[in-house]
Each structure stands twice: as C-alpha cells, then as structure tokens.
Amino acid sequence: MAHKLEPVSSTAGEPADDAGQAAFDRIIAADSRIEPRDWMPAAYRKTLVRQISQHAHSEIVGMQPEANWISRAPSLKRKAILMAKVQDEAGHGLYLYSAAETLGTPRQQLTEDLIAGKARYSSIFNYPTRSWADVGAIGWLVDGAAICNQVPLCRASYGPYGRAMVRICKEESFHQRQGFEILLELAQGTPEQKQMAQDAVNRWYAPALMMFGPPDDDSPNSKQSMAWNIKRFSNDELRQRFVGMMVEQVEVLGLTLPDDQVRFDEESQKWEHGPLDWDEFKEVLAGRGPCNAQRLERRREAHEDGAWVREAAAAYALRQRNAQEQNEEVA
Ligand SMILES: [Fe+2]
Ligand SMILES: [Fe+2]
C-alpha cells in the first residue's frame, strides 16, 4: 500500500504561508478535512506524525502479548479466533504507517526509531500475559479502551487518519467481543477458572484506564489537539465514559472491577473511579516496565528476520519498473 503513495515532502507547505494558514483555518472551522496535499502548519504535521506513528507502533508491539498464547490456546476454535485477531492488529499497524507516510515521514524511519527505542507506544503492551484469561482481559479491557479512544478519531481532521480509523474500529469491536466471550466462559466455568478470569481483570483494569493518557491537568498537548479537531474528547472524559461501560458489562460477566471507588456522580453526570498510579505509568513509558526490553528485542528480531522480504519486494518493484519503462520505450 505504502509504496504506491507518491512522496510528499516533509516540508511541504512550510514555512508559514498566510494564504495556506487561512485556508487551513477555514477547513478546521468548518469541521472539514485536511488532505495530504493541503498546506498545514508544521506543528499540526508534527503532532500527527507523532500520534499516528505511536498508534501504529502500539498495534504492532501489541501483537506480542497475545501472540504469546496462540500456541497454547485451549481449543482449535480459540486458536483460529486469536490468530485472526493478532493478524488484524498487524493490519491496523500497516494502515497507520501508511497514514503517517502521507505526512512525509517514511515508514522505514518510523520503524528504525521504534527498534532503536526512540519511539513511544502504548504502555499497556509492556505488561505480561500470565494466563489464558489475560487474552480475554486484553480483548475486553484493552480493545475496549481502544474503541472508546478511537471511535472519535474516525472524525479526526486529517483525512487519511480518520479513514484508517473507520476500518480499524470495525475490527476492534470484534476484538472486544471475543475477549468478553473468553471471560464469560471462564467466569461460568469452575471456581478456579472464574478466579483466573477475576485475577486477569484485576491486573489489566488499571493499566487499561491509563491507556487514555495522563489526567487532563497533566496533558499539555490535549488542548491544541482538540482545537485542531484531531482529538474530540479529553483523556478524563474518555476514561470516565469507559468506566461506565465496564461497570455494566462486568455485571454480565459476574465478575467485579478491582476499584471500590467507582460511582456515578449525579451532579457531573460522570463516572468516577479510584486513584491511578501515575508514577507506574511514567516508569513504564520511560522503558522500565515489566516487559519493555523483551518487547523491543522481539520487534528488532522480527524486523531483522523480515529483511529478505523487504529485499525481495524492492527487487520485484525494480523489475516491474524496468519492464514498464521498456514497454514505454517500445510504444
Ligand atoms: Fe488494533
Ligand atoms: Fe484490537
């Protein structure tokens, strides 16, 4: 997909251009879409490259904790479902790298930044998957949080990002259902199975809540992203909305959320939750979580193992180009 896109200079439309800025402002004010060839402020482009590439890296690194259970899934059916889910995540990463490339940053550079440990990805994927129930908890909580975050991104002002998110969200809802169903089956199983499901929910709940990012008063870029119609709701708003969804669903599961401070605040009409450990969040984000080193090492290995595929694709593309040029000469 990516190689078909014509390169867009990373400095296209920059530096400042009064007419370009006015056109950009009009598009944003009309809640319409910015496309790759439109002029855009350097900071808008930079914000998008950062956000979209972090999102792409999260999809790709996020394949690892679940892939860990493919060979040990409890049945052929579960294995097939999990494989499809993990492959979907690879596809999400590819759509998103393609969207980032339309802003002028090559995928190769984004990948190199990731494997050099210079890029960020969602901190949640640095936690280990200890039991089969973790696959359920990831689908239910992590993909559930991803949906809450991503549905509003379908309306993001940058066209290629919004369009990629539409396809991604359709698949995320399947992911959440498969996770919920794994937990439901365990919760209705033996007492040990139910305990395994509860234990997984206990471990994934707080990291899932932290996926929405730091609290609003500690999230300096949020305001600008909202002014640019990239983000539509604040971190805390999305987190509260998510807690409300989980409260309803955990009852159906017959499990509990490990948070005795969850309540609906009548006055603000919002869900409240207990305190989260933001120091832990910062530690994991800084590379010191339980699996950070392992995740990056595995990503590096996978990239090196794939070198022959990239070489073959480049050789094939060159051959196609040469053949086309020869045809054109003959014509
Ligand atoms: Fe995904
Ligand atoms: Fe997913």
UniProtKB/TrEMBL annotation:
* One Gene Ontology term of the molecular function aspect: phenylacetyl-CoA 1,2-epoxidase activity
If you read the UniProt record, what top EC class would you report for this enzyme, in one word? Answer: oxidoreductase
Respond yes or no to whether keyword Oxidoreductase is given for this record: yes
| Keyword field | Oxidoreductase
Q: What is its EC number?
A: 1.14.13.149
Membrane-crossing segments per the record: none
Superkingdom, natural source? Bacteria
Q: Which GO terms describe its biological process?
A: phenylacetate catabolic process
Cited Pfam families = PaaA_PaaC
CC annotations in GO: cytosol
Report the PANTHER family cross-referenced here: 1,2-PHENYLACETYL-COA EPOXIDASE, SUBUNIT A (PTHR30458:SF2), PHENYLACETIC ACID DEGRADATION PROTEIN PAA (PTHR30458)
**Protein name listed in UniProt:** Ring-1,2-phenylacetyl-CoA epoxidase subunit PaaA
Q: Say which species the protein is native to.
A: Psychromicrobium silvestre
